Amino acid sequence: MRLVVDKAPFSPWESVARYEREVVTPSFPGKVGAAATFVGTMRDFNEGDEVRGMTLEHYPGMTERELQRILDEAGGRWTLLDVLLHHRVGELSPQEPIVLVAVWSAHRKEAFEACRHIMEALKSRAPFWKKEQLDGGHHRWVEKNSDGY
Amino acid sequence: MRLVVDKAPFSPWESVARYEREVVTPSFPGKVGAAATFVGTMRDFNEGDEVRGMTLEHYPGMTERELQRILDEAGGRWTLLDVLLHHRVGELSPQEPIVLVAVWSAHRKEAFEACRHIMEALKSRAPFWKKEQLDGGHHRWVEKNSDGY
Amino acid sequence: MIGCSDAVRKPLFEGNSMTVKVKFFASLKEQMGCDGATVEIGEVATAADVWLQASGGKALPPNVLVAVNMEYTDQNQTVTNGDEVAFFPPVTGG
Amino acid sequence: MIGCSDAVRKPLFEGNSMTVKVKFFASLKEQMGCDGATVEIGEVATAADVWLQASGGKALPPNVLVAVNMEYTDQNQTVTNGDEVAFFPPVTGG
């Protein structure tokens, strides 16, 4: 299980490939049947407005605790082999990845369900806040996340 | 939209990264908010037996038609930006990827739902058949896929 | 192979005949002993008739799937001269 | 910032007092004018009391989330000397 909250830009598909190759496959050789992943990326539009950039604020300490709890809950509810979760904070530009969730399991049902559940739990519970930079130096806080179901 | 049915081993995360970089992002700059993927990998066990290798048979022509139909149906049901589907045929060894489904959309709900739907439709409708090589030169045809929901 | 090829050369129907291409896949291919054949059959025939002709009179196993011209259908579909009729077990890809 | 710091230096409660650390995040931080403060408050206090003290008597906005020692809770939870009490708007990560 790996959980990263970091300011640096990252390449989600490279992260998944590397973690799978270096950690998941060696830990469970021949046992991995399914991997489900989700990558959330910054768009250049929201609520009808062009968005120039984004600041992602978080609550250091609580964010990691809450994410860990979400992963532990998923591990208790589904039979999983491994999970990788990576979330950006700080200053982001459009097209940059914000979040990656990758779940490995023996069978597809578990990977699909756990991956989506982790994302929805993260969206509703993990203390992150998005501030959007709009045209003309304006900014606004995103007030709530869209529905995921 | 890209659909590949091929004998050659492939690296799913590299395929996703390359397709996203070369096709999806340039086609929809700043519009991609979500990517959901699934990778199915060959295990070395099934139904309590060790599996040494696998032969994936298909119905050339019909397989591609049925996969195309599944993708078209998903595109009609959800608002998607792009889909990549890659399925191995021929001789496989444990730990090799069998199938990749990657779906890009503006919002996560669509990507999650379409990705899982495409996988389940593929499992129930696309004409592929797995033959497992067991110990001592025995082989057996997989009789049916496990439930995905 | 030979059993399969033998069967297809004996039209069971009188009158005008047509030709359809038959395909078997996976375990069914192994059971039939061939991957398919060209069948000559009476002008009015269903997929089930084609099966009987191609299999030399064996009963169609209950879980066998049927496709005509690469589209799923059922054994009662009528076939036309030149059609490709495929029989195969439940699919197990992914 | 100054308004925030002023408020925290005036205990509203009589008797024994305790000290809690207050944190504000995101839009609430901007509205409050500071990212938090150390608050001296009467010994028996809830998160809502801490809010009142730290905000200088402002009403707690209805959608504000409350965490004590980095665990979600509600405004009625009693706080203990040394606790960290955080107030923030609905989360919008992912």
Annotate the secondary structure layout:
The complex is a heterotetramer, with two copies of chain A (149 residues) and two copies of chain C (94 residues).
Chain A: E1 2-6, H1 12-27, E2 34-41, E3 45-46, E4 49-50, E5 53-58, H2 62-77, E6 82-88, E7 90-92, E8 97-105, H3 108-125, E9 128-133, E10 139-141
Parallel strand pairs in A: 1-6
Antiparallel strand pairs in A: 2-8, 3-4, 5-7, 5-9, 6-8, 9-10
Helix pairs in contact in A: 2-3
Chain C: H1 2-8, E1 17-24, H2 26-32, E2 36-42, E3 45-46, H3 47-55, E4 65-68, E5 71-73, E6 78-79, E7 84-88
Parallel strand pairs in C: 1-7
Antiparallel strand pairs in C: 1-2, 3-6, 4-5, 4-7
Task: Explain how this protein is built.
The complex is a heterotetramer, with two copies of chain A (149 residues) and two copies of chain C (94 residues). Chain A has 149 residues and is α+β, with helices and mostly antiparallel strands. Chain A has one domain (2-141): Alpha-Beta Complex (Aldehyde Oxidoreductase, domain 3), CATH 3.90.1170. Chain A has helices at 12-27, 62-77, 108-125; strands spanning 2-6, 34-41, 45-46, 49-50, 53-58, 82-88, 90-92, 97-105, 128-133, 139-141. In chain A, the strands form three sheets. A four-stranded mixed sheet of chain A has the order 1-6-8-2, sandwiched between helices. A four-stranded antiparallel sheet of chain A has the order 7-5-9-10, with no helix packed on it. The longest helix of chain A has 18 residues, at 108-125. Chain C is α+β, with helices and mostly antiparallel strands and 94 residues long. Chain C has a single domain (4-88), classed as Beta-grasp domain (Ubiquitin-like (UB roll)). Chain C has helices spanning 2-8, 26-32, 47-55, and strands spanning 17-24, 36-42, 45-46, 65-68, 71-73, 78-79, 84-88. Chain C has a five-stranded mixed sheet with strand order 2-1-7-4-5. The longest helix of chain C has 9 residues, at 47-55. The chains are: A alpha+beta (149), C alpha+beta (94). Chains in contact: A-B, A-D, B-C. Chains A and D meet through strand 5, helix 2, helix 3 and strand 9 of A and loops of D.
